[in-house]
Amino acid sequence: MLDKFRFLTAGESHGKCLTAIIEGIPSGFEINPDFINAELKRRQGGYGRGGRMKIETDTVEITSGVRFGKTLGSPVTLVIQNRDFQNWQKIMSINPEDFTDEKSFSKYRPGHADYAGSVKYNQTDLRNILERSSARKTAIEVAVGAVAKQILSQFDVKCSSRIIQIGHGKTEEEFHAEIDKAKEAGDTLGGKFEVVFENLPVGLGSHVHWDRMLDGKIAQAVMSIPAIKSVSIGNHHAYKMFGSEFHDQMYLGDGKIVRKTNNAGGIEGGMSNGEPIVVTAVMKPIPTLRKPLNTVDLKDLSETEAHFERSDTCAVEACAVVAESRIACVLVDEFLLKFGGDSLKEIKNRF
Ligand code: EPS
Q: What fold, for 6-340?
């Protein structure tokens, strides 16, 4: 989907490692693995995370594209080892002679990719769908996002996120109480969060084609995070406001156009307008429940209870970090489209 800052990721949840190759980063950008690791730690944290996060200490290895701390212009490769692979070597083996049905399962988890994935890829062992549909892959996506954020920091772009609501809770104390309640009941919770990017130039994106609109690109990037069910930009109460209330009127201050409100969320006509970009998203409750949901077993089409191994109770805080990363990638892509060149120096001159 991205034009200039392109990347692919690979890796199964319990496979050996997660990998990303990023293509299109110009030379001269400082990339610090410590920053990437700090972001990975943020993704692993948050109240309500499960057992897997006690096993992993996600750490990136940069295996290409960077020399003496700076990008070369060549593809940048990132690798995160799955520590849990030690416990899954046989089960996740690539060799046919290691075949085992240990950890195979056929009881669909409603809300997960199991059902549609098994039909589409003609699989009877739902592990073959779970392994890639797991939110585990967001670890390597956050590593890519941390590279994007370091590129944006050269242009003083700032990023932050906050949780708006979890269950019925609207304060941190209430978030924790809601998550405790869900955990006790063997249940899960989603929530709503906000991501803000500040200090962006005017004119990222374009109004001239549907697929160049910045809001459309951001919405796609955030919507494709596992468990995201809605994305909005700016004031999501727009549906009940008058035009005179919603639109951000313009004034002159120090010879510059200034606004007193930002209901548009920093995007007008598919382009950044210089105000902070404000994105809100809703994450559904995680579909793997300790107290299983009703389902069907694909083996004999009998009614049964869904498969459960282990899961998080709530991962909204982690999801906000993933959303920051996705948006950072879109914004870097737009920076390269607008100011692009082969080196940091060239881009800085155009910027
Ligand atoms: C996750 C790793 C997974 C899950 C979780 C997210 O590890 P495991 O399957 O070994 O417990 O904990 O994913 C889900 C709950 C899900 O339904 O996809 C991670 O690294 O974030």
A: Chorismate synthase, AroC fold (3.60.150)
